[in-house]
# Entry
Amino acid sequence: MNKVLIVDDDQMNCDLLQSVFTRQGCHVISTTSGREGLDLFRVHNPRVTLLDLRMPEMDGLTVLKEIRAIDPHAPVIILGGGATEFQENQARALRVTDFIRKGLSLDVLVEAVTRLLKLPVLSTVTQFPLGNGNVIEQIDESVLVVDDEPLLCDLLVRFLSLRGYRAFGAKDGHDALQIVENTPPDAIVLDLIMPGMPGIEVLRALRDKSYPGGIIIMTGSHNEELLREAWSLGPREILIKPVDLERLLTAIQLVLVCREC
# Structure
């Protein structure tokens, strides 16, 4: 019987979800404590874990981070009522399997759990089925996209996700540095011209922090002095916008290969 772990500080939510998934034929374990949820995860090794984002003492992101240290591939769904974009990006950086906002139809959550229960136990590289019969090969490597244009940032995240990378975005340099501090990605795609904290300052801060991953610069600027300064800080590649997506993929692949060398 499939085990489902529910961790939510609201006892009524726990009871409701336990009732729903018990009727689905699952063996359900629940707790209102993030810390106890982590202990239950270690003991029961559940097939799917549902985590409330906002909990006292140990919140959902902290529990997820600890779960990833135990099992990098365990299916985990975060229930994120009132979540900020930054929190969602943090969850993606920690390889959350799904992020479902509270208030959505319960059917959405049931469908997500049912889908996960049908998948095989994940290995380092796993294939996920698409609706057209093709598959996405899930790669256990992460890419952070940093660009102040929300549409471009979201499109690049989607593009890289569809090619199997764990991709997530940041809309400014300060958010990017905080994400890197908490969960360093394997590679960063960084816009050079941004308001607030320009990409060149982000690049300099990453070098000061001895960030070990590879950095790829994107820019629409042809300012030779700025480009020379950027090159002096050691990015793997500088791509001029509009960026050729296949060239971007090749640059990311080279960054990740060099990281392994």
Summary: DSSP finds ten helices and twelve strands in the chain. The two ends are 43 Å apart (CA to CA). The domain at 3-118 is CATH 3.40.50.2300 (Rossmann fold). The chain has two domains: 3-118, 135-260.
